[in-house]
Amino acid sequence: MTASTTPYILVLYYSRFGATFEMAQQIARGVELQGLEARLRTVPAVSPVTEATEPAVPDVGAIYCTEADLKQCAGLILGSPTRFGNMAAPLKYFIDGTSSSWLGGDLIDKPAAVFTSSSSMHGGQESTLLSMMLPLLHQGMLITGLPYSEQALTRTQTGGTPYGASHVAGAESDNVLSADEIVLCKALGQRVAKIASALV
Q1: Bridge partners for 161 per DSSP
Q2: Is the pTM of this model over 0.85?
Q3: In 3D, which of 141, 120, 122 has the Cα closest to residue 12?
Q4: In this structure, are residues 114 and 75 in contact, taking their beta carbons and an 8 Å threshold?
Q5: DSSP designation for 140
Q6: CB of 75 within 8 A of CB of 44?
Q7: CATH for 8-45+55-199, options being 3.30.930.10, 3.40.50.2000, 3.40.800.20, 3.40.50.360
Q8: I want to staple 193 with a disulfide (CB 3.0 to 4.6 A). Which of 18, 31, 72, 78 is the partner?
């Protein structure tokens, strides 16, 4: 990151039905409550048809993440819906293409966190969060979660884990974020931004 660049936290997510996007918005609010810019970015879907392409700019939501967005961030918060206890293929595909950042050490010693959404309470949220941490560790990032000083962790009846923010979207992906889920999303954003501010 150059000295002239204003520090920002990259909130990078993939969302199919909107729940992960809603979480990303709440996390971004938490980042901004801490006084840093939150840069919302997404990744294009992966198609099994090789001729299929996504539009250059998505119809809804955030714009696509660029290599510069990733390299210049002061911190990264990564989000994905749960797919069989793992991150979704589009986000994994994007991460698999970040070798230049790894070779250049662009993300070393920057704070990172993860978040997810699943259709059911025990739909693999924690394994998804853990799987998302692995490439961040390879990038040399400093992984942060949610400490139990966040009281919503012990009272939540929906999502929320010490590994990162989570949401139970329901079988039809129509559950709105619960009050506790919102609190924990904002807390995650604030925590990463606070650590990034101390490290910049």
Answers
A1: 164
A2: yes
A3: 141
A4: no
A5: T
A6: no
A7: 3.40.50.360
A8: 31
